[in-house]
Amino acid sequence: MTTRMRAVCFGLATSWLACANSAQAQNGSIVAWGENSEGQCSVPAPNRGFVAIGGGGYHSLGLKGDGSIVAWGRNNSQQCDVPAPNTGFVAVAGGAIHSLGAKDPCSDVGDINHDGTADLADLALLLSHFGECSSDPGFYAPADLDGRGCVDLPDLASLLALFGTICP
Ligand SMILES: [Ca+2]
Ligand SMILES: [Ca+2]
């Protein structure tokens, strides 16, 4: 998967508190520096696979190539608690104490591989990860359609119910 970084963002507008973010396009890692009072420059491991980033007041956001968002730093208003299901995101941004994520219009129709249709390829993908949970090393979040942490029967039922759906 290509992991070219698409954006460089900055933290809080007051420059003396700003935490600047940059990135290396090769492996999609994030390099952060500056004010780190809330851990906003301490990118969580594994620091790879990011395709876009966003900066909040004292928190930072990274969008991964699998469509999930990683958020870290100050979390006093739950700005780092990405709502479930943490999948299907295509863009991310940070406000002073809030966060924003834009979803792929196809993310809720069972199109796990983002090719525009919920079909056999998605079923094969789901079945190849069936039984995996978020604590498992090979866990593939996009196959966890309901975002409850495991690729299981509700996800399979959901995909079968949406089978054949073409994305808008
Ligand atoms: Ca598909
Ligand atoms: Ca699930």
What does this structure look like?
With 168 residues, this protein is an alpha+beta fold. The chain folds into 2 domains: 89 residues, no CATH class; 64 residues, Orthogonal Bundle (Type 1 dockerin domain). It is 11% helix and 24% strand. It is built from 2 helices and 7 strands. A 3-stranded antiparallel sheet has the order 3-4-5, with no helix packed on it. A two-stranded antiparallel ribbon has the order 1-2. Strands 6-7 form a two-stranded antiparallel ribbon. Helix 1 runs antiparallel to helix 2. The longest helix is centred in the last third of the chain and has 10 residues. It starts with 18 loop residues before the first strand and ends in a 6-residue tail after the last helix. The relative contact order is 0.13. The N terminus is likely disordered. Bound molecules: calcium ion (CA) (2 copies). One calcium ion binds next to helix 2.
